[in-house]
């Protein structure tokens, strides 16, 4: 490892480079091309090129309503994750060990359990014979069925996404000087003011990065709308699956998938810009 | 128990209940003696667990997923180790590009990877091949391994390597006898995280599996959309138990918060 010629790092990265060019760059390029192919319901994918897949998806009320639903659900999920995740991360950071480690495990651990399993758990809780419905009957409110509604999708999404919000916020809180809050109190700030003026501004980047992860993952989530939305409530990912597996209109499905990808990348880009602007403000 | 007020503790309790509720309900329903999804109150039965172990499709998918995750995690380590050394120890033009390329599966939705790989596999006639399914899983788990390997590489004391070199060890011997043992926690942690992620992956797999190579999550998804009986709860409970064991191992060995939260 002493010979530091410029070819060594490329030589070391070569297996990964070849693999990723073949398994990521090439398939994405092929799919991008596919999304511009014309399609005929009787013949299949045609050799001619067209923009019609994109114009169809972006003008057809059916697809537009799915995009709006996807954005709406992802947005509500993100807001709820901020509202629940930020205070929870703060509360966790103020606990003593071993409670802190135990509860961090309890809250982040479900991340490792398959999404199918967790969605199935929610479908049992939210169905018309589920626990929540039974509780409502006992309270004299009659049965409620949340399953197969947008509310069911949001509840399960918040459950799945909450760790992704808590992790970056928790990391940001860990970097804070523990003496800051007492300093604010000793200068006469109330506990609330100390949190609002001292803690929140310093963890805002953590909240922002958590929000982006949550929004991106929610907008492209598949298992939860598939299992909890029923046949009627489609989101972007489930409609792509339908186009691929049931309608067999691959070019149209590819166009929707690419819109999801581009939207995701734009959000990430905007986030990087925001971080750079913030860093410049801090430095300047 | 700490510096939180009563309101904070109530809030915290609600969040913990919310996080555990679906998992607890699964583990309860799995023990039902009935053939509907009910919570057993008086009698507990293992019949649905027994049913899982004699269900040929579930068992085939389980072994399939087990092999898939083992192979994918191992190949991801073999790719990440040299690539991690290149990216974290060398300054060279294209370093940022390689880093971005290897981590890109983290920001590309699995849905998009799934349709993209399906297109590739159809064109080269590889649909239904287990080998190509492994390759597609390597794509999604490599970033996790690479991040932990790179963190381990930057965290170790390089004087030991220098000392071995001055004592006459060749670069390969230094790598094998000094570097790898020092970053072993990072490698093992990365492998386990990759294994779990591959074992749980649904969205990409549902596009690139065929009837012969259906993975366990895909099988469960299909099963849950078609029929709902307590067998699904039993499979889910087994998955939770397996994940729980993996979590305990990870936690004992490296500290789960360190791996998932990614602090120093």
From TrEMBL, chain A:
Gene Ontology biological-process annotations: transmembrane transport
Single GO cellular component term: plasma membrane
InterPro entries: MetI-like, MetI-like_sf
Entry membrane topology: Multi-pass membrane protein
Domain of life: Bacteria
Subcellular location as annotated: Cell membrane
Keywords per UniProt: Cell membrane, Membrane, Transmembrane, Transmembrane helix, Transport
Transmembrane segments: 12-39, 66-90, 102-126, 146-170, 205-228, 248-271
PANTHER family, A to Z: ABC TRANSPORTER PERMEASE PROTEIN, INNER MEMBRANE ABC TRANSPORTER PERMEASE PROTEIN YDCU-RELATED-RELATED
The protein, known as: Putative spermidine/putrescine transport system permease protein
TrEMBL record, chain B:
Keyword Cytoplasm carried by entry: no
PANTHER family: INNER MEMBRANE ABC TRANSPORTER PERMEASE PROTEIN YDCV (PTHR43357)
InterPro entries, sorted: MetI-like, MetI-like_sf
Gene Ontology CC: one annotated term: plasma membrane
Domain of life: Bacteria
Lineage: Bacteria, Pseudomonadati, Pseudomonadota, Alphaproteobacteria, Hyphomicrobiales
Name of the protein described by the UniProt record: Putative spermidine/putrescine transport system permease protein
Transmembrane segments: 7-31, 66-88, 100-124, 130-153, 174-196, 231-250
Any GO BP: transmembrane transport
UniProt keywords, alphabetically: Cell inner membrane, Cell membrane, Membrane, Transmembrane, Transmembrane helix, Transport
Family membership noted in the UniProt record: Belongs to the binding-protein-dependent transport system permease family.
UniProt-listed SUPFAM superfamilies: MetI-like
Compartments where located: Cell inner membrane; Cell membrane
Chief location bin: membrane
Membrane topology recorded in Swiss-Prot or TrEMBL: Multi-pass membrane protein
Domain ABC transmembrane type-1 stretches: 62-250
